Amino acid sequence: MSEMITLTIDGRRVAVPGGSTVLEAAKQAGVYIPTLCADDSLEPYGACRLCVVEIERVRGLPTACTFPAGDGMVVRTTSPRLDKVRRNIVELLLSDHPSDCLTCQQNNRCELQTIAAYLGVRQMRFEGERRDYAIDDSNPFYARDLERCILCGKCVRVCDEIQGRHSIYFAYRGLGTKIAAVLDLPVGQSNCESCGQCVDKCPTGALYPKAHMEYGLPAAETRTICPYCGVGCSLILETRAGQIIGARGDPEGAANQGRTCVKGHFGYDFVNHPDRLTQPLIRKDGELVESSWEEALDLVADRFHEIREAHGGDAFGVFTSAKCTNEENYLAQKFARAVLGTNSVDHCARL
Question: Is 129 domain-assigned?
Fold first, then answer.
């Protein structure tokens, strides 16, 4: 276990493990430092420069996300000087940023918008040269609007550090710098696996789920477990008017720690699909009719018994699923052998 060190942040003494950054120490002390590029799951980067702080006996304004905390260190996270620097940074970011927040798909979800309000930035003082990019909607689940990109690098870093896909990178230089796929092709033609991690990390409207174009903010959020496989990833479902309008990984989930695959992140439309069966169907007089679960299960049990009595257990074959947990698959094969009397058991993921 790392040796504990003690430092003072805005008059508050806080003890943190050695090797922590000033930003991590500030979070533990309950002190807010604005940042657009820092993320607990990513390596320190120091791109946005918003988390600059004043440290006694340290020259300049180091970034809290990259500067290591030291024993006895005295840190100030707010002062007239820091406020002015941060406001200037946000004003420069906004100088070539679209100002149509009201019609942006990420309105009230945008961290740049939140920090601008926190710092009291109400107008654009600088008129910068504007970038002109067409929206890339080649991916079936999310869109890219590079005019809203602030080059924080979160999308590139999560694709490299966590997903290991390396689907996107920084391309070109100067004002022409942008996030691009290989050969600057549309992202839908890259090796992107549509996990949605870049979308979740994006602090602006540069990346947004296409569902946000149809719905606004959710009315409620519910923690649940993804049903697609047996891993047991934790999800946070965004709901509105009884419908799921969004999903993301739960950072507190032990199995996935906030990560998702394309199914868990974007594959929720089946829940409210009009063709989805919500009650069991039984064939009567040649037609399928709705029934209760009790009636349906009794019918299945009776047919199993009739077939076993007439033809023996070898008349059955049991095929289990990778969507089930190991425990559920164990019970399925136990049911096959001990109840149905067959060893004909297979699994869709056995290869």
Answer: no
User: Do residues 272 and 289 both lie within one domain?
Assistant: no
Residue 301: count other Cβ atoms within 10 Å of its Cβ. Answer: 10
Is residue 109 situated within a structural domain? no
CA distance 329 to 125: 63
Classify burial at 153, counting beta carbons within 10 Å of its beta carbon; exposed 0-12, middle 13-18, buried 19 or more. Answer: buried
Burial class (CB in 10 A: 0-12, 13-18, 19+), 172: exposed
Condensed to tens digits (0 to 9), the pLDDT of residues 127-181 reads 878 889 999 999 999 999 999 999 999 999 999 999 999 999 999 999 899 999 9
1 — pLDDT class (breaks 50, 70, 90): low
Position 339 in a domain: yes
d(CA 261, CA 197): 9
- Our count of domains for the chain comes to 3
Please count the other Cβ atoms lying within 10 Å of the Cβ belonging to residue 180: 20
Average of per-residue pLDDT across 246-268: 93
CB atoms within 10 A of CB 86: 23
Q: pTM of the predicted model, to two decimals?
A: 0.85
Q: Are residues 71 and 24 in the same domain?
A: yes
